[in-house]
UniProtKB/TrEMBL annotation:
The lineage of its organism: Bacteria, Bacillati, Actinomycetota, Actinomycetes, Mycobacteriales. Acts as a magnesium transporter. One of its GO terms (cellular component) is plasma membrane. This is Magnesium transporter MgtE. One of its GO terms (molecular function) is magnesium ion transmembrane transporter activity.
């Protein structure tokens, strides 16, 4: 089977970005052949130097589309490899919200230089987004929105859209405002297109679904997406229209948040860019802090084992079940934590529901512990006798109940403290449940076995 165009390009363009000057025209033509998604994948798999060469070889339209498709962190990495002219061109073509995401990843002096290079109108709309706090929906909205007034006719509104469409984020969902920019309703291009030109826009508008610009971006995106809307208006505290949030931007917000939660639940920081294009030291930094923290926290488990050393010496058979009990406790706690963290993100659970969640998870844990405890009791009894069976069965029951309760409460407690629930999720819960489960195990063993 012959090589694909992308495979040919990967072979010809070295990782250090070096190519034969005579082959530049040939490579440029080759890059126009594959679908844009394949070129994006090529850039994502490349070092910053090779990616910069690929972007320069692309036609202007395709290079802008590829650069726009990259994550902001990846874009920031490419800034140093691209020439000033390329950087300014790509930056100017980004939407205001995407510009702000890129600026957040750049050193202050570079960010300031890029802003000053923008035309005044583009700098002003970018400044609107920059004015909102990080993490707010105002930081992720587009301020480029059509100004459709309720006292317009359909003909006037369509004429306004034709005049300004090229500079707008979307024209399919249209906020309707009064002359003070106060949001009155929403209409759609379909409604305008199918109505008579003389009909007033006010007759076509529906009650608006909207968000405040200071609302949390992730929470807003999560309740917005299930509504199956293409976009929704964003307003200030006086309900004046300041921008619009599109469904694709909301999806990006949720995807980024889910990636972060997944990474932290696996005890590392998110890379925020494709794996193969991430510098090696950045991958190390994303993991080392968590490994150090977990190594220190694991000393708690060591201390528990040291405390009950005499108990283990008196009944060596107890050591055989330690992996089973710690693994079961950690897994039970992680299951509860993952479920509740997801429920928090979706808005199904709130901070004030902590007692209700604890009671629910306690009952779930007791049910799971009963089932596992019976199996553990029968297996241990058959091999090691009745007393060991009682110890193992009782421990599984209590460990599951404890782990599920703690695992369910921990994300809510973390959110109440202003921390990311994912940070207090799987890694810390596993360590806590290991140590606590061992304490329960040895206390039951001492009581039942009389040691």
């Amino acid at each position: 089977m012959g090589e694909s165009t992308i495979e040919v390009l990967e072979r010809i363009i070295r990782s250090d970005g070096e190519i034969e000057p005579a082959r530049a025209a040939e490579l440029s033509e080759l890059l126009d052949e594959p679908p844009i998604k394949d070129v994006v994948a090529l850039v994502e798999r490349s070092t910053a130097t090779r990616a910069a060469v690929v972007l320069r070889l692309l036609s202007r339209r395709r290079s802008i589309a590829v650069f726009d498709a990259l994550d902001a962190v990846h874009q920031a990495d490419l800034i140093g490899a691209l020439g000033n002219a390329d950087v300014y061109g790509f930056f100017a073509e980004l939407d205001p919200d995407d510009r702000v995401s890129l600026l957040d990843e750049l050193p202050a002096e570079i960010a300031d230089r890029l802003l000053r290079a923008l035309e005044r109108t583009e700098r002003d709309v970018t400044g609107v987004v920059l004015g909102y706090p990080k993490g707010s929906i105002g930081r992720r909205m587009s301020p480029e929105v059509a100004l459709i007034y309720a006292d317009m006719t359909v003909g006037q509104a369509l004429a306004e859209l034709r005049r300004t469409a090229d500079g707008l984020e979307t024209i399919y969902t249209l906020p309707v405002i009064d002359r003070d920019r106060s949001l009155l309703g929403v209409t759609s291009l379909r409604d305008l297109f199918t109505a008579e030109a003389s009909v007033a826009v006010a007759e076509l508008m529906d009650k608006p679904t909207f968000a405040n610009a200071h609302d949390d971006a992730e929470e807003t995106a999560r309740w917005f997406l299930p509504l199956d809307l293409l976009a929704m208006p964003v307003v200030d505290d006086s309900r004046r229209l300041v921008g619009i949030l599109t469904v694709d931007d909301a999806q990006d917000i949720v995807e980024s948040a889910d990636d972060e939660d997944t990474a932290r639940s696996g005890a590392h920081e998110p890379l925020q860019q494709p794996y193969l294009s991430t510098p090696l030291l950045k991958v190390v930094r994303s993991r080392i802090v968590w490994l150090l923290v977990l190594a220190v926290s694991a000393l708690l488990t060591v201390q528990v084992l040291d405390t009950f050393e005499d108990t283990l010496a008196a009944a060596v058979v107890l050591s055989l079940f330690i992996p089973l009990l710690t693994g079961t406790g950690g897994n039970t706690g992680n299951q509860a934590a993952t479920t509740v963290t997801r429920a928090l993100a979706l808005g199904d659970v709130r901070k004030r529901d902590v007692a209700q969640v604890a009671w629910r998870e306690l009952r779930v844990g007791l049910t799971l512990g009963s089932l596992l405890g019976v199996l553990g009791f029968l297996g241990a009894w058959a091999v090691y006798g009745l007393p060991i069976g009682i110890v193992i069965g009782s421990t599984l029951l209590l460990v599951c109940a404890m782990s599920a309760t703690v695992g369910g409460m921990m994300p809510i407690v973390a959110k109440g403290l202003g921390a990311d629930p994912a940070v207090f999720s799987n890694p810390f819960i596993s360590t806590f449940c290991d140590a606590t489960g061992l304490i329960i195990y040895f206390l039951i063993a001492k009581s039942v076995l009389g040691i």
